[in-house]
Amino acid sequence: MKSSKTLLSVGLAAAMALSATTVAADEVHDADPRNTAWRGGIATDNNGEIKLVAGGGFNNLYGGGDYTTQTIMIGEYFTQSENFRFRLANFDERFGGVYADVNLTEGVDFYTAGYMLPLTATNGTTLFFPSVNYSYVDFDTAEIANGFNEQASNSALGGYSMGSNSHRLQGADVKHLLGGDHAHVASVNLYGLQPWNDTHYTVFQAFGGSSYGGVDMQMVDLVLLQGMRTQLGDAVFNIYLEGKYTNIKVNDVNDPTGNVSHLRGEETKVSVGFDWRF
Predict the structure, then answer these.
(1) pLDDT band at 160 (very low <50, low <70, confident <90, very high)
(2) Tens of pLDDT along 29-49?
(3) Do 229 and 262 form a contact (C-beta atoms < 8 A)?
(4) What pLDDT does residue 150 have?
(5) CATH topology of domain 2-277
(6) What is the pLDDT of residues 1-19, one digit of tens each?
(7) Dihedral of CA 26/32/38/44: which sign?
(8) What integer pLDDT is reported at residue 156 of this predicted model?
(9) Residue range 39-80, pLDDT digits in tens
(10) Which residues, 6 or more positions from 207, have their beta carbon under 8 angstroms from its beta carbon?
C-alpha cells in the first residue's frame, strides 16, 4: 500500500547518526559521525534499493586552533525511489554538536534540526551520542492521493472511498484523512559505537519521536550495524551489514466509513554496503 510506504519513508528519514566530543582528528573512528574524511559509498537492501553516498568535511574551519571543530556534509541518493537526503553538521568541543537534515522522499519531505551531547562509557571505549531533535514533516497530499489511486487494488484499503460516487482520492481527501498536511515532531535519538579492535566494530541506534502539532503520529526506528574496516593503499575500506526496523503510526484517522482508526507502516530491512574513506 502506498500509504504504508509513505509512512515508512518518514521513519527511514528520521534517525540521525550525529554526535560530538573532544578528540583529535586522527583519533576519530570511521563510524564516528565526526569523521571528516572524504568518502564515497554504495549499499543495497533486501528490496533491491541502491543507495549512493558521498561527502566529507573539514577540521578547524574557525577558532584559530584554540579548540577543535569538525564540519561535515553528507549526501545520499536512492536510485529506485529517487529519494534524496542531505545532512550538515558542526561539532565544537566547547558546546557539542548541532546539525540539520533535509530528506526529500516521494510524498513526504522531512526537515530536522538537533543538538547532540556526547557520553563515554567507563570502559573508555564505547561511545554514546544522545540527541534531541525537532522535525517538520511536510506531506504532499496530492502525491499520496495518486499513490492510493494507482495501487488501490493491492491496498489493504482496497476500494476505500471518500465519497459515495467516486473511489478516486484527491489531495484534499488525504489531508482530511490524515488530519492535516504537516506535523511538528519532537524526538530523541541514541547513537552508539563499540570498536572491538582495529578492524571490527558495532553501531547501534534507537530513535523515537511523537508529534505535538499537526498530524498525530509516532515513530520508532532501530538500527544495528556490524562493520569491518581494512586498509587499501592510502584509503580505508569499510564493509558493513545493517539491520533496520521501522514502525510509523498515524492516529485519529478521519475515515468516513468508520472502519479505519489509524494507519501504520512497519518494515524490517537488511542492507549490505561498502564505504571508501580517502
Answers:
(1) very low
(2) 999 999 999 999 999 999 999
(3) no
(4) 75
(5) Porin (2.40.160)
(6) 444 455 554 444 443 333 3
(7) positive
(8) 46
(9) 999 999 999 999 999 999 999 999 888 999 999 999 999 999
(10) 14, 15, 187, 188, 189, 190, 219, 220, 221, 222
Residues 6+ positions from 72 with CB-CB distance below 8 Å: 33, 34, 35, 36, 55, 56, 57, 87, 88, 89, 90, 91
SS3 assignment, position 171: helix
Cell 561527502 belongs to 55
Q: How far apart are CA 55 and CA 60, in angstroms?
A: 17
- Cα(167)–Cα(162) distance, rounded to whole angstroms? 7
Closest CA to 244 of 201, 204, 196, 186: 204
Task: At 216, list the grid cell.
Answer: 498525530
Q: Tell me if 31 sits within 8 A of 199, measured CB to CB.
A: no
Separation CA 209–CA 188 (nearest Å): 6
Beta strands, E only, 107-253 = 108-116, 119-120, 127-139, 182-195, 200-214, 217-232, 235-250
Q: Alpha-carbon distance 54 to 73, whole Å? A: 9
Q: How confident is the model at residue 24 (pLDDT cuts 50, 70, 90)?
A: very low
In one-letter notation, the amino acid at residue 9 is S
Per DSSP, helices labelled H in the chain are: 2-14, 141-150, 171-178
Q: Is 132 helix (H, G, I), strand (E, B) or coil?
A: strand
Cell 537488511 -> residue: 270
What does the H/E/C string look like for 36-79? Answer: CCCEEEEEEECCCCEEEEEEEEEECCCCCCCCCEEEEEEEEEEC
Which cell goes with 210? 511523537
